[in-house]
Amino acid sequence: MQFPLARLLTGLLAAACLPALANEAVIRKSIAERMPNAPKIDEVKPSPMPGLWEIRIGNEIRYMDPTGAFLIEGELIDLKAKKNLTEERVNQINRVDFGTLPFKDAVVWKSGNGKRRIAVFADPNCGYCKRFEASLQELKDVTVYTFLLPILGGDSPEKSRAIWCAKDRIGAWQGWMLRSEAPPKAAANCDSTAIDRNLALSRKIHVSGTPAILLEDGNRIPGAVGAVELERRLQLLAAPASKS
């Protein structure tokens, strides 16, 4: 049997949720009516700023007032804490559980003991990917998982398939990316469905450009960086473990 006080508290909690639900409904209705061609809204929730609501579309963030009349495109900055709250939220959305990546679908190579791990989504026709591959050669003790992602058009799908189907995938990949050596033509019976799975994975985790670099803590680097910056990021990852 529920006591009166407990019933009262339950009622108060339910009442407290009503404005939030009402505002979400109002906002969703407003977007549907005023922006009928807008992409699907994945999430509507209060933002860190009182009175402002966060609208999430995939991994993109927008803001709205509680009535759904005003849409704001931009970044929300906490001046007191000196934090870019929009950037933090996007990083949170983009975070990936590194251990769940399908490494069997990647071209894998390592240097030294390979204890530091990096995943890269790369298109063989991406100039920035080639530059990043060269930077990776300067690092020590890394394992690199490269997920072939032919999204740039042209002969990217054919090159990706040829590299994946090569007897020496590492040699074919690095030969093309570092020395512009064309990979051998893929056999007609080669199973290259891993590339299709990579494309599906990229859509799932919101990878839309190359190179996309995933670190072991689940965070990503959106674009090519030099060896010095990448080494700095890897050392930051290792720092907490070394202090414990």
UniProtKB/TrEMBL annotation:
Organism in which the protein naturally occurs: Roseateles hydrophilus
Protein name (database record): DsbC family protein
Superkingdom assignment: Bacteria
